Amino acid sequence: MSLLTRLAGALACACAVTAATAATDDFPDRPIRFIVPWNAGGSNDIAARELQQIIGEQQKITVVVENAPGATGAIGLGKVVAAAPDGYVVGMGTSSTLAQIAQNLTPLRNEQFAHIARVSTDPLMLLVPKDGPANLEQFLAHMKQNPGKVSIGTPGTNNLNHIFAEMTARAAGVGYVNVPYPGGSRVIADLAGKQIQGAVLKPSESKPQIDAGYVRPIGVFGNDRLQVYPDVPTFKEKGYDVYPYGPLVQMAYVVAPAGVSPEVRKRLVDIFSKAIQSEKFKAFAQQNGFLVDDMKGQALDDEVRNVQATLNSVASKVFKPQ
């Protein structure tokens, strides 16, 4: 190989590196699409729109939230997988999709995503209409008196909400009717309208209706009472084990398509982490009853893998084979 050829090759490589660096330095130079795989008005949509506003105000970056509900999150996240891995399309992953993966109910796999930052971890609660059973004991007694007839709504199906609806029925020792919806906002509307008798929801998607007196929380699926609703007891303190197969966490997190460059992934991590760690978002989280942390990048990869392993075990014991 001639000296001229080697110099030309070196120059081409240098130009490519320079171009890539420049592209990363300029990222993003147009709006980022943030796909929320649930209906507008649900907890993940609310959190995404708060981040959209904070990122715009704080970093002068335009984020466009796009709702793509259906198939317990699989439709919207499928759009993320199909997008070019350039960082301009991201999505909101959730434990619900991990539950779908555990049961082979979706073609999605965690390897198809680059995990960016965790947005929230959410407790789940059992709620009833305003004039429903006064407490958890009365609700379970009502289920026993009406075996297989009491309806419990959940956003999506074969997910953590569905698991806890099933655990509620097991606590009563009877069957029930699971009523899945495309998002939490639809669940809470039908619960307030008494179309269903119970619901498993997050505080963040039910707090306005609770505060307005349309619905009431009667039990928390967790080990501790919630700061936002300290008078609501946990299933555990009432003697009911809702984690018989291991601990579960309901979480939401930002993902990009696998194949995004390390430089762009780092930039996305920086953008979203800065917004999630802002005092404004932390205050928003406290008001809406969910928790935030600084889990991101590789640590989030590990967390998703651990939650997936637990769900792989739990789902096979809770749900009937499809």
From TrEMBL:
Gene3D superfamilies: Bordetella uptake gene, domain 1, Periplasmic binding protein-like II. Keywords: Signal. It comes from the Bacteria. CDD domains: PBP2_Bug_TTT. Residues 1-22 form the signal peptide. InterPro entries: BUG, Bug_dom1. Transmembrane segments: none annotated. Pfam families: TctC. The keyword Signal applies. Belongs to the UPF0065 (bug) family. This is ABC transporter substrate-binding protein. It comes from Bordetella genomosp. 8. The lineage of its organism: Bacteria, Pseudomonadati, Pseudomonadota, Betaproteobacteria, Burkholderiales.
